[in-house]
Amino acid sequence: MAFLESGEIFETNPDSKGKEFKINILCKYEPTASAMWFISQCTDIINQAGFGLVMR
Fold first, then answer.
1. CA dist., res. 3 & res. 56, Å (int)
2. Is the pTM of this model over 0.85?
3. Which tens digit of pLDDT belongs to each residue from 1-49?
4. Residue 23, strand partner residues
5. Average pLDDT of the residues of the chain
6. Measured between alpha carbons, how far is 14 from 27 in angstroms, rounded to an integer?
7. What is the pLDDT of residue 16?
8. Which of 11, 18, 21, 49 has the most beta carbons within 10 angstroms of its beta carbon?
9. What is the DSSP letter of 49?
10. Residue 38's pLDDT is what?
11. Terminus-to-terminus CA distance in the chain, angstroms?
12. Angle value at C-alpha 29, between 28 and 33, nearest 5 degrees
């Protein structure tokens, strides 16, 4: 998040300016109930910061 929020992403990847950012979480196994709760909390925070989160 700090990498995105600080704008450092644009220093290392100048072509990313003007694009939307999504954080992808890939699960090898079905997450537990507590993991799903944690991911839900993270999703809310990440969305409020103006980014997206996708879990597969």
1. 23
2. no
3. 899 999 999 999 999 999 999 999 999 999 999 999 999 999 999 999 9
4. 53
5. 94
6. 30
7. 92
8. 21
9. T
10. 95
11. 20
12. 135
- The two tokens of residue 28 are 């090898």
Reported residue count of the chain is 56
The amino acid sitting at 20 is E
Alpha carbon distance 54, 52 (integer Å): 7
Which DSSP string corresponds to 6-30? TSHHHHH-GGGTT---EEEE--SSP
